[in-house]
# Entry
Amino acid sequence: MNSHREPGDYDLLVLGAGPAGLAAAGTAAEHGLATLVLDERPTPGGQVYKQPGPGFVVRSPARLGRDYLRGIALAQAARGSGAELRAGVAVAAIQGTTVVVADGAASYRLRARRVLIAAGAHDRPVAFPGWTLPGVVTAGGAQALVKSSRVVPGSKVVFAGSGPLALAFPAQLRHYGVNVGLVLEAGPPPGPRAVLGLARAAAGNAELLRDAASYRWQLARYRVPLRYRRMVVAAEGTDRVRAVVHAAVDARWRVLPGTQERTEADTLCLGYGFVPSDELLRLAGCAFGYDEDLGGAVVQRDGWCRTTVPGVLAAGDVAGVRGALAAVDQGRLAALGAAADLGAIPAAAAARLAAPIRTRLARKERFRAALRPLYAVGPGIYELATAPTVVCRCEEVTRRELEHAIAATSDVNVVKSYTRAGMGLCQGRNCRRQVAALVAAATGVPIAEVPVPTPRPPARPVSLAALADDSIRDEGLFIRD
Amino acid sequence: MTDHASSAQSAAEAGAAGPGPLLPAAGELSAPLPASTDVAIVGGGLAGCALAYYLARSGVEVTVIERGELNREASGTNAGSFHFQIAIHQLTGSDSEADRARLLADVRLHAAAADVWSELEGELSTDLGVHVTGGLMIAETRRELEILIRKQRIEQEAGLATELLTGPALAGFAPYLASDLSGAVYCGREGHANPLLAAPAFAVRAMAAGARFRTHAPVHAVESLDGPGASRFRLRTGAGDLLAARLVNAAGAWAPEVAALSGLPLPVYSDGLHVNVTEPRERMLTPMLQHIGRRLTLKQAANGTFIIGGGWPAQPEQPPARYSVRWDSAAGNTAVALRVMPALRDVRIMHMWTGVIAFTDDLLPVVGEYRRLPGYYLCLASTGFTLGPIIARMLAEHLASPGLHRMPAEYAPDRVPALARG
# Structure
């Protein structure tokens, strides 16, 4: 590691080259900010606008779909405006507007006047009996596989999920030739009231409505059965998934007894929405609020995407899951705010340029509100694990072991100490909510008020070779002068 | 599908042989305080919990009062190593007779601690993750090797079996070490336990023997009572008042604050400690590694992760936060680890944590009664997960039968010169 390797400091450091990050970088650089975008993946685009991995030659861009083209356009716009893009670089730590990054060979520090965290979101983890079996994949994982490696998962797929994007995944998978045998939606079928609400909110959201209709139409065209108000409750099999057990649920996503059915499948694809990948926001010390439909804990921001930590901004799904189109607009808003804060453009100009963006974002927010009755996430999602179900897969901690620890203490840090749940490679990304739900159930405290364990770096693992620095002086503890 | 019975069932099992470690039930920790007790212990860390166990087992009435949760500070945030060899920070460099005597006594105490740890899982009838792996104290330079040889003679004299390894003998014994190290001392009794399990297990067994525990009860004031009556102290706590005939301050890094409530000076200091943990790997390293000249402890835990620490500082934070991770400490600490064990190059650091550590000027424990305030005791192990159980047992034996078991003068709270000043 070498702290002085990077002599040039940046005006804006963007963490994440997805829709929000690329849009922010393009806008910021266009207004004269020295901008650097980092992404841990080998190619820019993020999850939704994911590009094929290195080594893949794209001969027919149109065949890869609209998201691929949108990603290309954003990355090109960012580069064209003068922003620097650095791929394959992971952020390990952040303090104020200084970040420590690692690229596999070395780790080093970067300083900027503003840092925009645009780390995106990951699939909402759901623990149920059999969820750790080979053949159980997340929608995001399956999508990444198809988009970046052109690998098609499984020969008979059951898709289980919910949300406006839920139908997009099976439709997309089907489009790539995957045999999707059954789609389970936890929400209700769109009734007349919801449709009316959507129609009212539709003004200016034509693109979103068109997308939703096209997914539904594609599923119908391929004759994929779509069943509403049903959820997965177990995956069966020993070496891998052989069958999926599903059941009817109520409006709170709680299983109705006696409604279980079994469907043979070799792949179970889960798409119960996304949760913000908020590790860097946590490490930075930002304040959080809570909205389950946006992914649970949601960072607090002002109208220019500024968090409660001076100099640190957040845009896109990392600040509440609203999708790629909203992320692009938020990224632009954050960049305009930063440009005004840093004196690159007058405040009045920033406000003028932001006005149409704010109008678009407000429209999307109305659309989201209209969708809420259909896709509100029910608490039943966190109640599917049985006593022997492994909840923390990194450290192999079962629900029974967690409840044993929760009987001794309601302090999440102590539960973590007693069980090791959340200490593994994923740093609690997969089990944090499940553990919080168990603490909530045992103590009667709402899940929104269960605190998050103390965040600790590194946000991503760093090799000793990359981290070690021989020039650091041994400061010496226990010896007082 | 959900097993609704499991929650109630596991609550009932907490404290008995349940799924997972031996943990006290939350309900037992929030019961009302008794009006009075023989021994009141302030602090629910390893020292306090162990002391409660040894006292209750001897039939002494004891009540533990803890400000927060049990085992949350130094006792539960250290790396769980037993260090029995003399470490770098204990060597002053002076070869005075007093210094030698201090080190001899210290090594003897550590050998007794080794006995306690080796029997503890049997004593408490539970798994504490105790692994006696042996430990190597590494010397990098010629000068460090000389220090190693000198310190090993003291260990031999005190009765701690250690062995000096150099050249091909070291390479044969520990082929994973860098080939250009000058030597190492091996102690077969060193190892580690799980610091998350030891204090809670002591607490469960103490409660079974009649000890009472009350968590989330900060002590606001301590009044010394004169006149007739068995109770010499009244503790005003967040959970009400408690009268006690004897009071033990086992508050670790916060012991000076508790002592100050009684007007007692206590030069105990505390620092934040930085620790790194790697991803799990196949077994590469059996003994724990330490460095005689630089700050390093390195071991591979039972789950395959490498735990890398050794006294690098953490960043102090504004209360209520304690310490945050310091990137410079991670970079410096891992550089020493790589110098000693180059094969770790590609292993990835997965997690870092910080903990508090309390220590005295002479790095010896503070255990025993204040001469200036009879009935007031201290139980503090100075940098010590290793010594927590042994000093608690010593003090318990003394409190149970003061005439039979005298406390060593060198550990007295108002010993001269270091601790009596101020």
In short: Chain A has a mean pLDDT of 86. The longest helix of chain A spans residues 347-375. The radius of gyration of chain A is 23 Å.
